[in-house]
Please model this.
Amino acid sequence: MFTKAAMRRLIARKRDGEALEREALLALIPAYMSDALDDAQMAAFLMACVLRGLNEEETAALTQAFVASGESLEIASDAPMLDKHSSGGVADTTSLIVVPLVAACGVRVGKLAGRALGHTGGTLDKLEAVPGVRTDLEPARFLAQVHDVGCAIAAQSERFVPADKRIYALRDAVAAVPSIGLIAASIVSKKIAGGASAIVYDVKTGNGAFMREPEQARELASLMVRSTRSFGRKAYALVSDMNEPLGASIGATLEMIEARDFLRGTRRDPRLQELCLALARAMLRLAEHPNPDAAIASALANGSAHARLERMLAAQGALPGALEALLPSPQRRVVTAPRAGFLSAIDTPALGEAARELEEHGGPGCGIIVAARIGARLQTGDTLAIVHGTDAKNLEIQAAFTITEHSFAARPLIRDEITR
Amino acid sequence: MFTKAAMRRLIARKRDGEALEREALLALIPAYMSDALDDAQMAAFLMACVLRGLNEEETAALTQAFVASGESLEIASDAPMLDKHSSGGVADTTSLIVVPLVAACGVRVGKLAGRALGHTGGTLDKLEAVPGVRTDLEPARFLAQVHDVGCAIAAQSERFVPADKRIYALRDAVAAVPSIGLIAASIVSKKIAGGASAIVYDVKTGNGAFMREPEQARELASLMVRSTRSFGRKAYALVSDMNEPLGASIGATLEMIEARDFLRGTRRDPRLQELCLALARAMLRLAEHPNPDAAIASALANGSAHARLERMLAAQGALPGALEALLPSPQRRVVTAPRAGFLSAIDTPALGEAARELEEHGGPGCGIIVAARIGARLQTGDTLAIVHGTDAKNLEIQAAFTITEHSFAARPLIRDEITR
Model:
C-alpha cells in the first residue's frame, strides 16, 4: 500500500529531478483515487512534474495508471477503428469533416471529443448546434453506431479514465497544467480507453494554441506517438499552425455550417482543406487503405462524405433537415481594415473569446467569419471579418488584426509530421 | 480578497519563475489562514517556491506575513535582548553554554528554542533532562525572567507565528522543505516575533546538517541576516562544520552534563569551545559590549557563567541539586577501532539516530560519547565511542566511523562569517 510517508519520499525524488519507477507511478494513482493520499500531496507532486519533467517511460506508466482507473473498450478484432485528436484551436472543424470523410472511404472512426475550453471551440458543442443531436452515447451504443454507420462522435463516458478527470481538475486549480508529460498522459489515456486501434494527433502551435512554441508542440506530438505505440496501437501526429483561425468560421453553429458546406462542396477554405486532407490521408494510411488519395477525392466529389455526415447526425438524433436548415444569425456587421498594408498577425485567442461571448449573448448562429488571411494585401475599408451577433465588438475585433507596411512570407500550415 | 482564481494566477507566475510582489505575499498568508485557499493550492505554490526560488524581497515579505499571523513581543526599550539560533546539528550544546555565559557578561538573552528533529537534538529536550525544568513559559513570564535572571530558554508560544506552524507542517507532508527562502522566512519570523533586538545565527553545513553544501549554508545565512535587518534588528551569522558531532556527547542528559561541565571548567571539548566563544563574542558585539573577550574569559574563570546556568534552571523550576546530580547511564560499552589508520569521516546522522534510539529504549542518561575526532591517528582497539544504554548497537556505531590509510588536513570548524 502507498502511505503518505512513501508519497513524501516520491515527491522528494521528483522534486530533486529523479526519474521514477513504473511500479511507483502505477501504485500512486489508485492510492490517490482511494483517498489514501490527499490533494495537497498530489498537487505538490504535479507541480514537481511540471517543473522537473516526466520522461517517456514515466509518461507511459502514468498513462497506463490512468487507463486502469476505470473501464475501457477492447480493440475490435474484425476491423480497425480510428480516432483523431486535436490539441485545441480556433475555427478547427476538422473532426466534423474528417470523421465522415474517412468513414465514407470505408474505414471506421469512433471519435471521443471534448467541450470548448478557454478561447478554443469544442467538437461536442458544434455537433449539438444541430437540433436533436446527442453526444452522450453509452459505450455500447457508440460501438454499435461505429459498426452500423461507420462513424460516431461522442463524449467520453464518465466511467472511462476517472483518474484523469480528477487529476485534470486538480492541475487546473493549482496551475499545474503546462507539462508535456502530464498533457500526453491525459490525452493518450482517453484515446486508449476509447478502444481505437489507431490514433492520429493534430498538435497545434502558435498564438491560438496551448503550445505556443513549435518545439514544445513537436515534443508533445512525438511523446504521444511513442506512448500510444507502447499500448500496441498505431499512431501518427502532425504539428499544425494556429497563429490564425484554421477555417473561416468561429462559433458552434457557424462552424457546423462550414463543415457541412465543405463536405457538400459549396465552400472550401484552402487552409482547412489542406489540413483535413492531410489528417484523412494519415488515418487511411494507418488503416492500411490501399489508395487513400483516390478514395478521399472520390468521397468528396460524389457526395458520399456529405451523406455520411448526415447519416451520423441522424443516428445521434438529428431532426430531419436540421443540418440543412442551419443559418448564420441575420444580425451582421462588417469589420474593415482601418488602413492599407499587409495583414501580418491575428490575435487568435481574442477572436476565439469574442466569438464565444457573441454566442453567449446572441445565441445560435452568432460568431465571427474571418475574411482575411495572414499575408493578405489590404486596402483601407477591405473586409477583415463579418460579425454575427448583438454585441458592439467591432473595435475589439478590428484590433485583433495587425496591419503592417511590409510584406513577408506566410508560415506553412503543417509544420511537422511524426510518422514513427 | 484573495480568491482561488487569484491564487491560481499567483502559482502560475511563480511556476514560470517570476518574482512576486510584496502585496501579493502579504495577502496570501491571511487568505490561507482564514481557509479561503486550500492546502492543495498552497502545496503547489510551496513546491514552485522550492524549485524556482524566492528572492530577498519575497523572503522578507513572507517573513512579515508570518509574523503578522499571530502575536509578537515588542523590543524592550531599556536594554538589548539577544537571541541565537542554530540550524540543527548533533552534539550541539552551544545554547546551553552561550545563553548563561552571555548573561553573565551583563547582556540579556531571551532564547526561543525547539525540539529534536530527525537525527538532530533539541535544546528544549536537553533542558528538560534536568528534573523539574519547564520550558513552556508564557510570554510575560519569559520576559520577566529575562529581566530578573538575565536569561531564559523557552518554547515558542503557540500564539506566535501560527502561519509558520501550519505551513511548516504542510511543507513537511508534501516534501517542500528544502528552500532557502522558505527556511529563512520560517526561522526569522519566529525570532522577530520573540522580541529580540539582535540575533546570532549558526548555520550548520556537512553530512549532519540540513544544508549539506557550504554554499547553500552561506546563502541561507546571508539571507537571514539581511531579512532580520529589514525588521530593524541587528544580526550576525556564521557557517559551522557539521561533518562530525560538534561536542563529545549525544543524548539529552549527556549533553546537559557536557554543558554543565563546560561551564564549571571540568571538561571542555576544544571544538565545542571554539564555537561557543565565537557565538558569545558575536552576541556581545551586537550588544555593543565594550570588551567581549575579557568578559567571556572572566565569566568562565570565576564561575559566574556556571552560576547563571543554575539560576536560570532554578527560575524555570529545576529541583535543588538536580543539575549536579545528573549522571550517564551506568550501562556502558566501548566501541573500538577495528583497524589502524586515520579517522577520515563520521556518519553524523547515523550517530544522532542511534543516540535517540538508545534514549528511547534505555531512558535518561543513555546516548553516545564520541571519543575520536576526524583526522585522528588510530591504532586497532582504540576507543571510538562509549555507548550508554541497553541496545546492542556496537556494530552500527562502529560502522559510522570511516578509517582510511592516509592522513589529511582537517576542515576548519567555522567556515564562514556574515557580519554585514
Q: What stands out?
A: The mean pLDDT of chain B is 95. Chain B touches chain A at residues 4, 8-9, 11-12, 15, 38-48, 50-52, 170, 172-176, 178 (CB under 8 Å).
